[in-house]
Specification:
Helix 4 packs parallel to helix 6. This protein is α/β, with parallel strands linked by helices and 264 residues long. The mean pLDDT is 91. Helix 7 links the parallel strand 3 and strand 4. The protein has a 6-stranded parallel β-sheet with strand order 1-2-3-4-5-6. The chain has a single domain, classed as TIM Barrel.
């Protein structure tokens, strides 16, 4: 028993409506990239009866995510973020080998992933709308799944994706150096994920300031921002931090950002 995917309801309507009813400032909503699912959910013996290839499943998912983004734009949401963990496959040798073991060509999949994300965003541009892409390396319950610097994907990814800003994880040495940021177009923002959402240890502000300065050698300081490397709860299970520890992290981000970029 089975069939093709059929959307029964909006993905984020409940959350968007709640925020619009309770928040006075701009609202940010997050949607998953369609690339999140074919790599991990496609089972040839089951999925193959309805989607002969992962590419066929991806095309179906693009239509669903695109409709959701269009609905958020129509709702007047000012900031839409696409969460994309799967680009990390292409910086990590073991995951590239995993894709080959599945019979896939990592290079072809990478190009197809960019095209899929761009297809979701096509025609969505509106005055006042910010579109961002978060590239995740795993975060659920303070775990991670991919390592490797951005160098193998940086030039093509940064110059091809039709987003306004990139949220990049840089909380550990697993993410490599800031040098790949040299490929970042000058009209895009880079949000440096320097504060870990995985561990309770509070980062040193001096260290954050040093690393922001280091990143500014590749991207102008006015095109940089600061954030936690990921959310504090990728799933309902959350991460291994208390609520108080999370607030201390956020306060550190705000205080550091004010020190670098000013503002109140």
């Amino acid at each position: 028993m089975g069939g093709k995917l059929r959307q029964l309801r909006r993905l984020t309507e409940h959350q968007a409506r709640f925020l619009q009813a309770n928040v006075t400032g701009p609202i940010k909503m997050t949607v998953p990239s369609p690339n999140q699912f074919p790599a991990i959910s496609y089972l040839p013996d089951i999925s193959g009866a309805f989607y002969p290839t992962r590419s066929d499943l991806l095309a179906e998912l693009v239509s669903i995510i695109k409709q959701e983004i269009a609905a958020l734009v129509a709702d007047g949401i000012a900031y839409i973020q696409v969460d994309e963990p799967r680009y990390s496959y292409y910086v990590d040798f073991k995951w590239r080998e995993h894709l080959r073991d599945l019979g896939e060509d990592p290079g072809k999949m990478f190009d197809e992933a960019i095209a899929a994300d761009n297809a979701c965003l096509e025609g969505m541009r509106r005055p006042g709308l910010t579109v961002a892409m978060h590239i995740c390396r795993g975060n659920n319950e303070s775990k991670w799944y991919a390592e490797g610097g951005y160098e193998p994907i940086a030039e093509k990814l940064f110059n091809s994706l039709t987003v306004d800003r990139f949220l990049l994880e840089y909380d550990t040495e697993r993410a490599g150096t800031f040098e790949p940021l040299r490929f970042m177009p000058r009209d895009k923002m880079v949000v440096l994920g320097l504060v870990s959402s995985k561990t309770p240890r509070l980062e040193s502000q001096d260290e954050l300031l040093r690393r922001i300065d280091e990143a500014s050698r590749h991207v102008p300081i006015e095109n940089l921002a600061l954030s936690p490397q990921c959310g504090f709860a990728s799933t309902a299970a959350g991460n291994l931090l208390t609520e108080e520890e999370q607030w201390r992290k956020l306060e550190l981000v705000v205080a550091t950002a004010r020190k670098v970029w000013g503002g109140s």
